[in-house]
Amino acid sequence: MRKKLAKLGLLCGLMLAATGATGCGAGEPASVDVQLWVNVCVEGDADCFFLGVPEAEVSLVYPGGQVIATGKSDAAGKVLLPSNGAVGEVRVVVVSPLIEAGRKESPLMLPYEGGTNITIAARRGSYSPAGD
Q1: So which residues are the signal peptide here (predicted)?
Q2: DSSP states along the chain
Q3: Which end of the chain is least crowded, N or C, by CB within 10 Å?
Q4: C-beta separation of 122 from 39 below 8 A
Q5: pTM of the entire structure?
Q6: Of 109, 105, 121, the residue nearest 38 (C-alpha)
Q7: With contact defined as beta carbons under 8 Å apart, do 40 and 131 qualify?
Q8: Which residue, among 35, 65, 33, has the nearest Cα to 51 in the 3D structure?
Q9: pLDDT digit string (tens) for 47-57?
Q10: Which structural domains are found in the chain, ordered by start?
């Protein structure tokens, strides 16, 4: 029984390694998976929490300002942007009225192959429930 479990574990490990290798290989368009969060704190309470930022304009931009790709986040604050062949240093620019100052930029290094992801957390400030 122990030998069978060891063989099964090795087989599963090899399958996972092969799956991971094919997920980043050539033939698949490279993309950037962006997750946007806003930090919300309830006034008069020590509790803060993160919420997804819906309908945010998200762009991949070269340091010189050339836009690589743009998109809009979904209700959960997620957007998948194509890298359009770009590699190296870029900036992820997020524009939304839900973010403090309406804009946030974060640096990102795009790999030569496969995709990447980034989570951007921004501050919103205090929230006071209606009627308080």
Answers
A1: 1-23
A2: -HHHHHHHHHHHHHHHHHHHHHHTSTTSPPEEEEEEEEEEEETTSS-EEEEE-TT-EEEEE-TTS-EEEEEE--TTSEEEEE-TT--EEEEEEEE-TTSGGGEEEEEEEEPSSS-EEEEEEEEEEEE--TT-
A3: N
A4: yes
A5: 0.69
A6: 121
A7: no
A8: 35
A9: 788 889 999 99
A10: 28-126 (2.60.40.10)
Check residue 28 and give its pLDDT: 59
Cβ-contact 57, 85 below 8 angstroms: no
Tell me how far apart the alpha carbons of residues 18 and 87 are, in angstroms, rounded to a whole number: 25
| CA–CA–CA angle 111, 118, 91 (5° rounding) | 70
What pLDDT, in 10s, does the model give residues 107-132? 999 988 788 999 988 877 444 455 44
Give the whole-angstrom CA distance, residue 60 versus residue 92. Answer: 5
Identify which of 91, 111, 84, 89 has the alpha carbon closest to the alpha carbon of residue 24.
111
